[in-house]
Queue: 4 jobs
Job 1
Amino acid sequence: MQFIEATYVGNFIDKQMLFDVFDEVNRYFTENNIDVRLVYIGPLKLAPGYLVSIKTSNGTLRAYPLEALIETLYSRLLQDIKELIEQREGDDTGIIMNKILALTTFPLISRNPYFDFYEKFLGYHETITNLRIMILSTEPFYSEDIENFKMRLFKGVLHEIGHSFGLEHCSGECVMNPPGTIEEWDLRPPTYCDRCFLELKRNAEYDPGLKF
């Protein structure tokens, strides 16, 4: 079984909405017999000093630099893996855990020039020493319709998880098909196409990641 740590960063007013999204992702994997599950580990906190101001054509935005988020998530995953190893004391239980996913209310920015991510980027993923870090900003997906908002995020989480298992962007009717606009994203089906689904299932079964 593959476990992905799930957390959030920022001032989420409706935390139940996040839990609903995580639960829906787990329900999807369960119903489709894919041995992948999100495990909620609580909120992730960064010191206020990390916040930076970025001037854009839409005004000034406050956000955590992407690099700071990546470093913090990487450190948290390393810490939890170490604790898991110590708890198992060498007992091989078949558990694989080498991934962490964070949702954030802040836009995704870098110390490089500001990314115009609103219509171009769903999120960000990076692999460091075989550990996979995924970050998804809720900002581009916001909708006053809470159910539509949750569906957009659900598809965004599936997209990032797909990347973490080696899936590339797809041109079909699939969550791995990145949109040009949020309206296009609303038209994407809340699932993988057959080709991406089979690749995800195969990679999830044979991932050589950190096993405990």
Job 2
Amino acid sequence: MWYGAYPPQLIFSKRRFRRVVLNPPNFEPGSWCGAGKLLIDSETGEYWLTSRPRMGPVKRGYGFEIYRSSNAEDYSLVYSMSKEELSEVVGAIVQSIEGSQILRDPLTGRYMLYLSVDVAGENVAGREGRVYESKWQTYLMTAEDPAGPWKGEGFVLKCDRDYDSGEARDATIDIVDGRYFALYKARKAGEGEVNMALALSSDGFNWVKLGVLKIDGDVQPKYFLLSGSIMAGCSGPIFIGAETLCVVKGAALTKHVASYVIDYRRVNLESIFKAEWKVGSVYEHPEYPIHSYMSIAYDSDRSRWLITVEAVDPKHSKEPGLNTEVDRLLLYTSTWQYPYPRHVLHN
């Protein structure tokens, strides 16, 4: 018998491939969809999914999209915005859009949309060898309904520290005990070392950066990227998701899943477990199945976990790499007879 939070080991051991939920704009090399996150709206019973379409090095992340579903499997597009339109909202030229996600603020009920945007002076990051000349920051928009209209609120995670002067983006943001936690990708300008940093907020607008995290008291590897979800646990907030440790021809590709306790007081990640992501469908590359992005959400109405991954397609990709692969968005489900231990249900 286990106690506390649902064991991440159990989530992944019981997972089964369900279906392709989103396809890329086309199936030419460099065409992707994904880089988003799934939100289950407990008030409306709807499922919301964000994505960024991409088509090669020139037409990089050229917009963001919001999809709605009533069953978590069949999605329809309800809102989209091009990077040119977003540039007008932001007040700066947006070269590309990457990681995005929606949350619902518990105080106001408004939806919060976090967007990773490249506001470098020119479009360089789509070219292999120049990816570290970009300048990625996190922009916030809000709305009463995910179908829009969306209002620009400003940059909330900026490149304003030495350790994140090149990138402060692709955050995994969740609300635990009423507090916003953000694990975000931090990179120093002009350098290739990528780490995960931590920021906290009481309202989702104003953030306090705590710095680059350690792992079990030691420094992170030179390339270390997490993408997933943050959940409540008895020992503290727990991250569950994909762990990326390598870059292949400009693309951050993933072979492993992992889980950590987020010790925010000591700015440290405490290891829970790590395992290889075993390919469960024909839509995943056998060596590099995932391109960075994953989300995990518990669907209490159906007693199941929903896992979305941006997968490297083995059929349409020339090879894994920034402008040579094709990415789809896949859905896995993980079910268990009891969503909580028996003693919790019976007491």
Job 3
Amino acid sequence: MIESYEKAGKIVSQVREDALKIIKDGLPIIELVNFVESQIIEKGGLPAFPCNVSINELTAHYTSPPGDETLIKSGDLVKLDLGAHVNGYIADTASSILVDGYQNLDESQYSEDLAQKNLKMIDASREALNNAISTIRAGVELEKIGKVVENTIQNYGFKPVANLTGHSMEQWILHSGLSIPNIGEKNGHKLEEGDVLAVEPFATDGIGYVTDMHQTYIFRFLRDRPMRMLHAKKVMGTIKSEYKILPFTERWLLDSFDEKRLTSSMRVLIKSRAIYPYHVLREKSGAWVSQAEHTVIVESDGCKIITE
């Protein structure tokens, strides 16, 4: 088990660093997510969820739909969130980057002050992650982690995103029950040795809350449901077989199904609650957001970071 976690962690760490190097002005998001997901497979893992590329005020759950033509631009604050699993044991990591080239933009489009604020915001989420990890050990209460994250981000002059949290993980389960808070809310639950946690602070200069958008590009199998439509039944069977209860995207199913028929079947599966749709999340006031994330395994006197 530990070996699988460590292998998954090594994979996503390598892929994260390689992917950050190719992010540039004019890069299609779909090329970035395809690069990340294919590299995870090439290195011996499988994607634990579709690669998330959330830009500026978009905070989470954006992955390219089929035919996505969205381009990354100079000055964008890009949050790259990726995960791999080995035998169902998951490593989850994220990093934020300010896309180079903003220095050449007209001052009316992108000021140096704006750039420095966004770079500082990236530092805030990164330091909050490091400080949170330094507090983690068996017996620590979850509220202590949240307080550390909140205080660190506030010391930079920003706010944590209060209604997004980290999460515990188990084999095949990306969110297995524990929420790792990013604010100092009352939570006396004590960590136990062997807990596997994804710790992920988000920092913003907005109000510090996210809200659902209409778009849904990531899904998860919930339960078998009776299907009149044979095609929808076949899609449901493929989803259950290929991804179990891990998140997936419609894009991954295009090798097996015609796009138009697949889209129709996906609507049926959502309506019947056979699959769960994750809405793209954005900062409620439209402010930009940074993110940093590592996966750790709790030990008696600290924790082991598997995604460094």
Job 4
Amino acid sequence: MNHRDADLAPDLTVPVPRGPVPAAPPGTERPRVEIEVDGKTISVEEGATLLDACRRLGIDTPTVCYLETLTPVNACRACVVELEGSRVLVPACSRKAEQGMSIRTDSERVRLSRRMVLEFLASGSDLSISPELSDYMERYGAEPSRYGEGGSEPATVEQPAKVDNELYVRDYAKCVLCYKCVEACGTDAQNTFAIAVAGRGFDAHISTEFDVDLPESACVYCGNCIAVCPTGALIFKSEHDLRQAGQWDEDRQREADTICPYCGVGCTLTVRSQDNQIVRVTSPLDQEVTAGNLCIKGRFGWGFVGAPADGGTEDGNGSCGAED
């Protein structure tokens, strides 16, 4: 390097001033439409759903297959409402609001439909660890036992849970075919496509390709399917083992938010612990970085927490220092 080039070289001892922080351009305001919900007029953005309008009015509309971060698939029909001028009840989770619509969310026709949907689900699946669905059943007076002697203990309960790995358990006795896990494994989140709905009619079930064991499938163990499952059909093995032993006790559990230590993305983790042991890790749906999704490390890679200093192993998944 000659003297002229040296004179032009930047002085590395002088800090470079920070440039402007990039910001997203302001969004354009969308047109609004007015609809009537249970006699109340509300204005919502064009493209909003009837469910959006109901929630803005504080109307608790039951949903099973719907989640804010997933594409609506209209599988359960628990959210149906009565639309004036429509021959059939319409799903609130996917029907877009249109100017002048008038809907009723708690008519006798709506309540009957929701009660029957909940009875069908409970007559074919074990909803014992799904408190939200149990609350809906009580609210609508659902009696699944009237669909036969096996109503309280459906035949699907007889199938054993699939325990073929150390991270999570597939207990399809609790599956209601809501499709949430399939959507999360597909284009809505992971794009792995390790699971899908196989079979038709009464034979329909969630399956890996060719029904192979999970370790032999395309699964990357992100656990995003567990995060969206509403019934416990997909569950952390740590939680499954505690429930099997009769030791799962939510009254003794605590939650704390932290940041995943594995990379620089900055995913927020919600760590749940019981008796100072981590039993489950999730991520908030409203977290802009993750939208509830995590990778295998973020969701399952916490076994090192509280591990013995000598590098040995201990029972359980590690203690949670957040409670100390």
